[in-house]
Design goal:
about 625 residues; mainly alpha; about 0% strand; globular
């Protein structure tokens, strides 16, 4: 299936499915389809609904899963039922169908964009960048027009937004802000896309030209990824130990750490709502009447007990308004008292826009979590290491599904690892060797996962030629950090070197070839620096990297910004500049500035490999 359906199409399928799945239970059933048609004053007889269900329900369980929906999506697109779905969805959710093409979609493909998302994202950008002098030429953005897409076309706002979500990802000295030309705009867009990839956004099928042209479906998809990463940054146990208050009875920290930020956010809302007897299962259908929101606001509003924080009284009278849109507006007025009226309008609440409502609840969490770490607990919570974060972001940028949130827990079934093998040109026998999810919670589920892990190790040894001495499938299943990362590193190395295939007159791309090319390129450009290995002590100044970047694209590096002193602070400044400059000239670098300062040979190798690919115009 993954070979037949593009990334864009898959995203469209997921969005369509979520809009039909009004109660957010993961399935489409007859009652949900009936409600959709009735809401549009287009009632469909019960027998016709059953015919539609029978056509979709391939495993005869009376529910339609995402997989079943995907399998018949193309068949349905051209028939009358599919057209009815599309028409109904567009009318109900405020979707605008636009014609557009890209390298991965056939000419004339119809993409859907959400006017609500365009409105919400424009307002969000206006609020967080309003005081940035580099953005004054495009801000404020009119949220009621297509101005958002034009405002992002020079790359400046995108770069700034990335730094808002993950601070210091981009060295802002590398952003072109004055007298922009087609070339300097292209550099900004390269910088934005490669930096977005480095923080875990999937940008495989998005190019600078797509952003320059303002293709709405691609722009909104990228914006949501960037904004979501920032919103969810602190919804993680290792960064916010008070989240341990959300532990269920008899549950350990490991179970909590395995939950995705979305799942943690839902648990947080229910933690406060249980006091009033309300349980949410989703941020779409369950919040449409604003009842849960009113009570959530009342529960998390400051009571004045904390020093320096004034009491906020939530007015609950709006809960009794019968008109749902007016009720939602009253609720949002109360959210404004908490400084958290962002992302949603009253219409977004009543329509149950899951994406924007999730962003709204994440804002509430970030502003007023109202959690207290349980007392008398001797926990030693280790934060995610830099290496773990780099690997996780690399995996997510390649589009592994589901997304990797906790590197060890989410690799336990080996599904992400097997997808990475395919992306690294190792053939995977999905039909006979891989146990596909969902896995049973009890019984033989763990055995199926271990079988997948065994197969992953077998592929590494036999098909990829990895050195996996002492590593077994059980180690991946158990989340052995050292052994798991040993496998993941070799996958990343293979993927990176694959970018250099066909280089070197038939010579296999390897570390010696990269070092030889680096030194030859530096010498031919008249640079005095050189490297002996990826452990060379001179690398912690970043000067060999900057010299190479300038050799690849002459005049690109402003050497007046390069620190000549050798203090740790100066070295870090140079490294930040070097990493951002590498991304700016088009090298998709995942390493971090600290990797250069500390001379991490593994990650240093990937920097030079990506620069070599860029220099040879291969990547």
């Amino acid at each position: 299936m993954s070979q037949e359906i593009s990334t864009e199409e898959m995203e469209e399928i997921r969005e369509s499915f979520q809009k039909l799945d009004m109660d957010g239970n993961g399935y489409i059933c007859a009652s949900e389809l009936g409600d959709l048609f009735r809401d549009l004053n287009c009632p469909v007889p019960g027998y016709r609904i059953r015919e539609i269900i029978q056509k979709l329900d391939r495993d005869k369980d009376s529910n339609i899963s995402l997989e079943e929906f995907t399998a018949v999506f193309r068949d349905l697109k051209d028939d009358r039922i599919a057209q009815g779905f599309r028409k109904a969805l567009n009318k109900k959710e405020g979707i605008v169908a636009i014609g557009g093409t890209s390298e991965i979609s056939s000419e004339g493909t119809q993409h859907s964009i959400s006017e609500q998302e365009r409105y919400a994202f424009a307002n969000y950008i206006n609020s967080i960048l309003e005081n940035d002098p580099d953005c004054k030429h495009v801000l404020p953005i009119n949220p009621n027009t297509g101005a958002l897409f034009r405002a992002l076309a020079d790359g400046i706002v995108l770069c700034k937004l990335i730094n808002q979500s993950v601070p210091e990802t981009i060295d802002e000295r590398t952003i072109n802000t004055r007298k922009l030309t087609a070339f300097t705009t292209q550099e900004n867009l390269n910088l934005a896309l490669n930096s977005a990839s480095a923080i875990g956004c999937q940008v495989v099928n998005i190019g600078a030209q797509d952003l320059k042209e303002g293709k709405p479906h691609l722009v909104l998809g990228l914006l949501w990824q960037i904004i979501k990463i920032g919103l969810f940054a602190d919804i993680e146990l290792s960064r916010n130990e008070a989240i341990a208050a959300l532990l269920d009875e008899g549950e350990g920290l490991e179970e909590l750490m395995k939950l995705s930020p979305e799942e943690l956010l839902l648990r947080w809302a229910n933690f406060h709502l249980k006091k009033v007897g309300i349980t949410l299962t989703n941020f779409s259908g369950d919040i449409k009447d604003s009842r849960a929101y009113f009570h959530l606001l009342e529960q998390i509003a400051p009571d004045g007990s904390k020093e320096g924080v004034d009491r906020v009284e939530i007015d609950m009278t709006g809960l009794y308004e019968k008109d749902l849109t007016k009720r939602a507006e009253y609720m949002l007025e109360q959210a404004d008292l908490l400084g958290a009226r962002q992302f949603v309008t009253a219409t977004d609440v009543v329509c149950g826009n899951a994406k924007l409502n999730m962003a709204f609840v994440a804002t509430l969490f970030n502003k007023h979590p109202d959690l207290t770490k349980p007392e008398n607990q001797d926990w030693n919570l280790e934060s995610e290491t830099r290496e773990e974060r780099t690997f996780r972001n690399w995996m997510n940028s390649l589009g592994v599904s589901p997304r990797v949130n906790h590197i060890y827990g989410d690799l336990q079934d080996a599904m992400a690892i097997l997808q990475l093998y395919e992306k690294s040109k190792v053939q995977v026998d999905w039909d006979s060797k891989v146990n596909m999810p969902p896995f049973k919670a009890v019984g033989g589920g763990h055995l199926k996962k271990i079988e997948n892990c065994n197969y992953a190790v077998e592929l590494g040894k036999n098909a990829a030629g990895f050195s996996l001495v002492g590593i077994a499938g059980q180690d991946l299943y158990d989340g052995n950090s050292k052994l798991t990362l040993a496998l993941v590193w070799q996958l990343m190395r293979r993927y990176t070197l694959n970018l250099l295939e066909d280089l070197g007159d038939g010579e296999v791309a390897g570390e010696d070839l990269i070092i030889a090319w680096v030194n030859k390129t530096l010498s031919e450009a008249g640079k005095t620096s050189s490297i002996k290995s990826f452990k060379d002590k001179s690398l912690n100044t970043s000067i060999p990297v900057l010299d190479l970047i300038d050799a690849i694209q002459p005049g690109s590096v402003n050497f007046e910004l390069v620190q000549k002193d050798k203090t740790d602070a100066d070295k870090l400044k140079n490294a930040k500049y070097a990493i951002s400059m590498a991304r700016k000239i088009g090298a998709k670098v995942y390493a971090l500035p600290e990797d250069l300062v500390e001379i991490n040979p593994k990650m240093v190798m990937t920097i030079f490999a990506c620069l070599m690919g860029r220099g040879m115009k291969k990547v």
